[in-house]
Known about the structure:
By secondary structure, the chain is of the alpha/beta class. The chain has helices spanning 2-9, 29-34, 50-55, 74-84, 88-107, 122-128, 132-141, 165-171, 198-209; strands spanning 12-13, 20-21, 63-69, 114-117, 151-153, 176-178, 186-194, 214-222. It contains nine helices and eight strands.
Amino acid sequence: MKQAVLNWLFPSYCVQCQSPITANLGLCDYCLEDLPLFDFSKHNNLLHRPDIVEMFPNCEFDKLFACAFYQPPFDHWLKRLKFNNQIHYKKALQQVIKKQLTQFFEQSPTLPDTFIILPLHKSRFITRGFNQVSQVWQPLLSQFAPLNSSLIRNKKTQAQSALSKAKRVKNLKNAFICTEDMSGKNVAIIDDVMTTGATLNAATSALKQAGAKQVWAFTTCLTPI
């Protein structure tokens, strides 16, 4: 009854087709099913998918999860959320991620010991006022593994979007430190978009220096090269 009243007072619409949906969603069932998402029944680890290995040949992490390529409509949703804080796109992204996580872990024999959402540098967090990756991902993770905040971004880096691949790697050298012993743990790190893998590789390096057995990279989208 309460949900029906909320839907009547504050109607919500699918971000794709504009059909009416319940207030806690961003996509209708039809549009969710129609999205070009990765199929984990074929490649549970995307590092085993030939086209993705060719795009990202120098990954230091052990397993890769992503929902889709960074293309329409996902690029639009992520940009609007990141730079304009348009929250209705967060609901759509959460539906996509929840669907993909469920499929992924149905195919995976093991769960990670912990999740780490890649932190922003303190100055960037103050400027932006929020971490869009945390906003989207954090509510979805508790059923799979606990969240950990021991990875610190201790170096203020340039925005990666303006840099070449080589400069991205140099920009992120020693950008992260891990303040906790991770010996023997499988750690899953989370970011929104993987473009070259430089950020995820830098975080992986810090976690493996802290003893992590394996590092899994989870990202909303992969930028096709």
